[in-house]
Amino acid sequence: MTGDPALPIVSIEGLTKTYGQFTAVRALSLQVQRGEILALLGPNGAGKTTTIRMLMGILSPTAGTATIAGHDCFAQRAEVMQHTGYLPDEPMFYEHLRGREIVRFCGTMRGMPEADVRRRTIELAARLDLGDALGEYAVNYSMGMKKKLALVCAMLHRPAVLILDEPTNGLDPVVTRSLLDLVREVAAAGTAVFYSTHLLEQADRLCSRVGILHRGALAALGTPAELRSQLAPGGSLEDVFFQVTAPPAPSPPPPEPL
Known about the structure:
The chain is of the alpha/beta class and 258 residues long. The chain has a domain at 10-88 and 160-245: P-loop containing nucleotide triphosphate hydrolases (Rossmann fold), CATH 3.40.50.300. It contains 9 helices and 10 strands. It has helices at 48-55, 77-83, 99-109, 114-127, 143-155, 173-188, 200-206, 224-231, 237-245; strands spanning 10-19, 22-32, 37-41, 63-68, 71-72, 84-87, 161-165, 192-196, 209-214, 217-222. Strand 1 and strand 2 (22-32) form a beta hairpin. It is globular, with a radius of gyration of 20 Å. It starts with 9 loop residues before the first strand and ends in a 13-residue tail after the last helix.
């Protein structure tokens, strides 16, 4: 790990992204501590993926800052990548490389010794039931297999921060359970996990805290228990979600003139 362990390893302050008149992310501020799993929830178009792309330096913010391990996510993208593993919602690979060649390339880019890459690849591929597929060309991979390969690449160098965008889309229940177990293990070892998902029950069971985005703004933030207690007493995280993302009630019509 790097830096002061008492400080948040992910820090977002006033992060904003606009496209013309449209604001995709609005003055977002939150922090993620080492060993924490923070879920970012929200309806489609709420700003989850835009936020992640700014964290990964793929998009530049219109305003505000985002840092990982003390490095600016856009201005110091190369340094950020040394501390971060990223699983996009729709991984893309050069299709005429075999799975093991893709993983080896990722390890080389991280500066890892080949023996470490090989050992770590075997370990992760076994956990995700990907071992036999590593000899296949990526063009033959299903979306679920691409997700598993991308997760191996993301976790290969034991990153301090793991950013997962809809990680269980396309995975069967057995592999989903293996992935969630892996996420719990790396968090218990001190990795910060930033986890975007639309699966409310999964977030409730897995995550230390939950942030709910609505129309680009942070509508709620807290532990699942805190949010249920404050916003939906006796209810579920799903009830909380609909409470904070529900459209406003229509205004009553004006009274009829007498």
